[in-house]
Amino acid sequence: MLPSVLLNQSNIHDLLTLRLKHYGGTFDFKGPWFTNVASFIITSDPMNVHHITSKNFSNYGKGSDFNEIFEVLGDGIFNLDSNEWKQEREMFHSLLKRKSFKIFLEQNIQKKLENSLLPFLENHATKIIDLQDILGRFTFDISFNSIFGFDPNCLPYNYCNEIELPEIRFVKAISEIEDMLFSRHYIPKCIWKLQKWLNIGKEKKGKVAQENLYQFLYKCIEVYYKGDDDKSDSSLIKEIMMEGLRKEKMLERYVRDTVVNILFAGNGTVSTGLSWMEQTWGVDCLEFKPERWISDRGEIKHVPSYKFIAFNAGPRKCVGKDISFVQIKMIAVAMLWKFQIQVVEGHSVIPRVAVGLSMKHGLKVKVNKRSI
Ligand code: HEM
What we know:
Elements: H1 2-7, H2 12-22, E1 26-29, E2 40-43, H3 46-55, H4 63-69, H5 82-97, H6 99-123, E3 128-130, H7 131-148, H8 169-186, H9 189-198, H10 201-226, H11 237-246, H12 251-266, H13 278-281, H14 321-338, E4 339-343, E5 364-369
Antiparallel strand pairs: 1-2, 3-5, 4-5
Helix pairs in contact: 6-7, 6-14, 7-12, 8-10, 9-10, 10-12, 11-12
The structure holds protoporphyrin IX containing FE (HEM).
């Protein structure tokens, strides 16, 4: 299978979907013996997902291959197994469930909506914008503000001129790292390791991006250290530092790894696991039909998480799911209340080849103010 994957790199999602369909939802991915590509099983069958993520969870640790591919995440929660993972997960739970944090987060989202997103859309009424880029900036600002207590302004406040939004180096860095991480799944290990050693191709881009991101985070941590006492107690950084001290880890590294994990998590994560399969959702699976999750009596239909796997399932299910839904609902309500949003006719929506499932050409839309 490896040669066809390499020949179809730009189309890998479609290729894997066809294979899954052909083999009834599960197949064995094998590289040639000399390439060192780990042989792995690809599945979209909800019962297999249930078996792996819940019923036999302890048999399916992430393991050393995962750690090697995702080295950028360091010793953060995504890379941990067993007891270390359990402790880190407890820390995340207690961080995110604090009432003061939830209030802080909701206030941040509301402020950002009122001062950035809605004025931006108002300024761009009747024009074409890339909604994926705008919402990516919005969520990055929110995640960052939740961690450090200040807004990096990727989507600026009271933006009112016609100049294109500047590219943000560290946001771009995350997507370049994601590209590299995905290619490490299908390029033979000996080849990507050689590319890394020779410092060429995606490995070179990823390495530069990783250094940029780390440097930026070290600077933010330093600014936090040196800052005045007027810091928001509700942001996460103080608790993360205290946890690092408690665990007697190298503090800067612990904080860096934890923050990188949150930023990757908030950025969409490993949601390529979301398989939009005919076998799972029926023959109309490609149609936009939100009503498929609403019952005849107007109630939300419950779908088990091993079937709707976007947030993962079982003991490792996403700890940020609830706060993500708060954010999604607040943004959707605020936008749809004031604007009509229409995807530009003919705009091609295809997936980007990376670990996070985003759109290669963004989402070009036209925004019109609603007349009430
Ligand atoms: C729409 C947004 C999000 C989606 C689709 C999503 C999806 C996921 C998925 C699929 C996983 C499992 C990854 C794996 O085990 O390899 C995961 C884990 C995780 N997510 Fe999210 N996530 C989102 C937002 C967030 C946010 C905002 C946070 C904030 C802190 C967060 C925190 C985490 C953490 C800490 C884990 C690791 C859990 C563990 O390994 O025990 N996520 N998420």
